[in-house]
């Protein structure tokens, strides 16, 4: 079991309706040690690919993406959401259905911040049906850039996002993949993943 | 002139209506080097105070707050915004007027993430009239915690937020304070601040 799976078992709470509440360390309060470990884990898993930009979506992807950008020393862009696109003149705009808010949101990035020379690592906290992730991919493609990889903290393996993205040929790495979870027993099962080599990397900022 | 003032002169754009656009490095695309320097500058300016939690507000405060939390090795909490408070049962809730969206937003933090033992450093990207900052202070006070300090990247010195917070006795540190700006000439003047000693701190993550 990896550090994030252990953290989920320790601090995650399963709610009725297939909801995993991890706001004590991931998307309301941010545990910096776990977030740093995620940044290192993404760097390790994507060590064979070239990355010159990190793309995420507001709000809870920003913390992880910032530490990944810090580690890669490349700019971090966060796509913004709005109910309506006031002006599409200087923006790449896509749409994503939000299950939380039960509506389609416009998702956009200003044109200067994505370009054809970009090799983009997409980072997000959750992957469920892949709505937000496909919107981010669409924005990168509109700019002519390349999606170098997709790094997700927690993938809900019972939902279609992960299998769709893998079938589409994207290099997707999810640190924890939930195979099943039960709110009555609070039991979570994770998909088996290859274990990383043990090392003693010092994770503090120098 | 400090690193942030130089960055603003190089990459900021003044728009009509007293708007400073810094989305190329601060609140849409994030320049990690500038953000890291801000984190170190806050740590330097607040070196005499004890901090065990960082508090910011979604979305654009999160990147700076994450690197500050990383440096202090303490949890980062970001307050959430919503038009309506669905349930106030387990949340501290305050209100802030958003000039961007021309409406009052509820601003909230779940109760477990702020407490009476917290010595909170509030971090945000902008300070103008102080609406968001006062809402964050209110949330800390509701929890019984202490506002140890307030660190702002860019203070609009022509607006009332900074002078109000200083008059209220808060320890406020703004890395760049705009004294005046003119969209026709694109000239920005900063308020003089004491210069930090020159040092060669290595800013990369170890």
What does this entry look like structurally?
Chain A is α/β, with parallel strands linked by helices. In chain A, about 25% of the residues lie in helices and about 35% in strands. Chain A has 5 helices and 11 strands. In chain A, the strands form 2 sheets. The first copy, chain A, has an 8-stranded mixed β-sheet with strand order 6-7-5-4-8-9-10-11, sandwiched between helices. Chain A has a two-stranded antiparallel ribbon with strand order 1-2. In chain A, helix 5 links the parallel strand 9 and strand 10. Chain A starts with a helix and ends in a 16-residue tail after the last strand. The model of chain A has no long low-confidence stretch (mean pLDDT about 90). Chains A and B meet through strand 3, helix 2, helix 3 and strand 5 of A and strand 3, helix 2, helix 3 and strand 5 of B. Strand 3 of chain A pairs antiparallel with strand 5 of chain B.
Which labels suit this protein?
homodimer, 206 residues, alpha/beta, eight-stranded mixed sheet, 5 helices, 26% helix
Q: Which secondary-structure class do the elements of chain A indicate?
A: alpha/beta
Computed over alpha carbons, the radius of gyration of chain A is 17 Å
Q: How many alpha or pi helices of chain A?
A: 5
How many extended strands of chain A? Answer: 11
Largest sheet of chain A: 8 strands, mixed
Euclidean distance between termini CA atoms of chain A: 28 Å
**Which shape of chain A, going by the Cα principal axes?**
globular
Report the oligomer: homodimer
Q: How much of the polypeptide of chain A forms β-strand, as a percent range?
A: 25-35%
List the uncertain runs of chain A: none
Largest interface: A-B, 35 and 35 residues
Let me know the average pLDDT of chain A.
Answer: 92
Order of helices and strands of chain A: HEEEHEHEEEEHEHEE
Helix content of chain A: 25-40%
Across the major sheet of chain A, the strand order is 6-7-5-4-8-9-10-11
């Amino acid at each position: 079991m990896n550090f994030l799976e252990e953290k989920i078992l320790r601090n995650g709470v399963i709610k009725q309706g297939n909801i995993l509440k991890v706001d004590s360390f991931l998307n309301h309060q941010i545990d910096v040690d776990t977030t740093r470990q995620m940044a290192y884990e993404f760097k390790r898993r994507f060590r064979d690919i070239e990355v010159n930009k990190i793309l995420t979506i507001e709000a809870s992807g920003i913390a992880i993406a910032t530490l990944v950008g810090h580690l890669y020393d490349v700019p971090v862009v966060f796509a913004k959401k709005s109910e309506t696109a006031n002006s599409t003149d200087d923006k790449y705009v896509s749409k994503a259905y939000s299950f939380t808010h039960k509506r389609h949101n416009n998702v956009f990035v200003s044109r200067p911040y994505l370009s054809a020379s970009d090799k983009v690592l997409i980072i997000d906290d959750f992957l469920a049906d892949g709505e937000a992730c496909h919107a981010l991919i669409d924005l990168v493609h509109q700019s002519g850039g390349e999606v170098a990889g997709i790094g997700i903290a927690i993938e809900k393996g019972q939902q279609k996002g992960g299998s769709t993205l893998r079938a589409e040929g994207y290099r997707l790495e999810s640190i924890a993949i939930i195979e099943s979870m039960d709110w009555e027993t609070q039991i979570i099962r994770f998909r088996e993943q290859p274990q990383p080599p043990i090392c003693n990397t010092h994770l503090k900022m120098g």
